Amino acid sequence: MNINQLTDAQISEYTRVAYYYYKEGSTQEQIAKRMNMSRQRVNRILSACIEYGIVQITINANSKSRLLELESGLKEKYGLLDIRIVDNVNETDIFLDLGNAAGEYLATILRDGDVVGFTRGSTLAAMAAQMPVVHRKNVTVVQMIGSRNQDPQNTAADEIVHNISNRLGAKAVMLFAPIIVSDAGLKASLQKEPAFQDTYQVIQSCNIAVVGIGSHDSIDPHYAFVGVDIHKNIRLKEGQRVAGEVSTHIFDQNGAQVENTSRERIIAVELEDYMKIPVRIGVAGLPEKSEAIRAAMLGKYVNVLVTDTATAESLL
């Protein structure tokens, strides 16, 4: 049989199944769960891999198998649940490529009844714009951080949730609150409102989170937009330096939480609740974000990563 009869998507899927089975030693049952397909389909794909020449004695050395080797190395090094690496060669397309890959990944793991939380950012906005249409029952999409008027078009958390829910035919649950309020008392009052409590209960029921990863350089302007001088509000311990941020939670180079006194005014999922979400997908790329991505993985802020080849190589 001629491999040219297969689409690029089929070649990618078949190569991935073959790699997991022949190189990683995963069982067909494990692969079926990992790729959200039946064991019978895994078996058929493995047979087809031989027929199409994808598998001979070893998996053919091609760009997709090299990506799989890189994925496997990072998955083992950082204890990730899963990883997807985009073979991006043009930085101007990085947000689109990462967003597309993140959308495709979510589509493969999404199941009936899932509750998916989102934060904000350009990559997640690109994901929302390219999200495949997926038919699942009783899916809920929820906003995990407050909004701000200064966000560029389509990058705010509420717009991302709206756009994703339309693509999935899911229920959208909004967090109708600013990302930061003027004082701790106002935040406490807002948290007592029934509408806020209803939304926060949905956030606490999330089984999947999709988040961007902010680098050290992006934190200052991120907080400046909401009236916070980050240098006056963080308390660094000896040896700590700010590395990055996920869902407004700042961490150091080793993934440890950095004390931030402005947290008493920030409206977002609390760290304790966020860390209870079983699948935490981080979508970020470019080598300049490597330290933030590495720290986010070390601190378990993300346990699934979608990134690009150059960044992945810098993390291995």
What would you say this structure looks like, in words?
- The chain is an alpha/beta fold and 316 residues long.
- The chain is 45% helix and 15% strand.
- It has helices at residues 8-23, 28-34, 39-51, 63-78, 94-109, 122-130, 157-168, 184-191, 194-204, 216-224, 230-233, 271-275, 290-298, 309-315, and strands at residues 82-86, 115-118, 140-143, 171-173, 208-212, 214-215, 234-235, 242-246, 249-252, 259-260, 279-283, 304-308.
- Helix 1 (8-23) crosses helix 3.
Summarize it:
This protein is an alpha/beta fold and 316 residues long. It has helices spanning 8-23, 28-34, 39-51, 63-78, 94-109, 122-130, 157-168, 184-191, 194-204, 216-224, 230-233, 271-275, 290-298, 309-315; strands at 82-86, 115-118, 140-143, 171-173, 208-212, 214-215, 234-235, 242-246, 249-252, 259-260, 279-283, 304-308.
**Tally of separate domains:** 2
Largest sheet: 7 strands, parallel
- The N- to C-terminal Cα distance equals 37 Å
Low-confidence stretches: none
The neighbouring-strand order within the major sheet is: 1-12-11-5-2-3-4
Percent helix range:
40-55%
Return the average pLDDT rounded to an integer: 89
Query: For the CA atoms, what is the radius of gyration?
Result: 20 Å
What order do the helices and strands follow?
Answer: HHHHEHEHEHEHHEEHHEEEEHEHEH
Number of helices, where a helix is a run of at least 4 consecutive DSSP H or I residues: 14
Give the overall shape, derived from the CA principal axes.
globular
In CATH, the architecture of the largest domain is 3-Layer(aba) Sandwich
CATH topology term of the largest domain: Rossmann fold
